[in-house]
User: Fold these one by one.
Assistant:
Number 1:
Amino acid sequence: MADGTEAPDPGGPDPVGPASAVRPFLLTAGRVADGADGRSMPVETQVVATAEGLDALDRLAFEHHDIVAECRLPQSIAEIAARLRLHLNVVRVLAEDLRAAGQLTVHVPDAGLVHDASVLRRVIDGLRAIPDARGIQ
């Protein structure tokens, strides 16, 4: 293509469409993903749309709409960022905005469980068990 990127494979569908061309700081009005305690939401934080969020879905604009729509079922911050092709910190800031508006419920995992090495080992083992794109394990 003219911009130096390869043309998309016509045989393979793009599940989420093209990445946004809008700069991340424009989406968050320059805000950063720090919570009230000065720390950002962990990437494994689970968020789910509230009834109010789903009712307001047709009134939400752009990324706010996409996040609430994606969170009909619980999703982690990392999953939302990957599925919507948004920067992780953008999703953190927008999820905090939606939580403050009552449109998302946020479930931060227990810090003790997050730092448990056995949980990390099970995650690594689970990831290794997933076949790669070529079907090789």
Number 2:
Amino acid sequence: MSEAPSPQLRISDQDRESALTALGEHLSVGRIDIDEFGERSAQVTAAKTRGELSAFFLDLPEPHPVFDAPKTAVSEPEKPASPSAGISPMQRVMGALLPILFIASIALIVTTSVTWWFILVPIGISAVGEGIWGKGWDNAHKKLGKQRRRELDG
């Protein structure tokens, strides 16, 4: 039942991507140089049939393009938790405003006659936030970002 497909069958974008990936592997191991890779890539992009596409690999060992291969990501992957998951809207607002408050306080101290104690305003807000939301409340988004990267990597 598994007949050899005709070389006259038209190819899909997925078939072209498979061929470009195979060419990239040949380039990375040194079988073809960058100029030849560019020429063959342009020809692969313009190819319309399996026969045309296969002709670009006659002088190369495996890997060759895989025709009608199922996509590696056929089903939609499970969405990872957003970086803001587990952070209340008020925490996000305060986490965004705190650095601005520090900069504004320093700017006011430098440019006006406001005394140095004005810097205690953002420090006080930070301390209150820590008391309400727990230690590290203003760095929770960084921790979630690191956790998300770890999940995506492995």
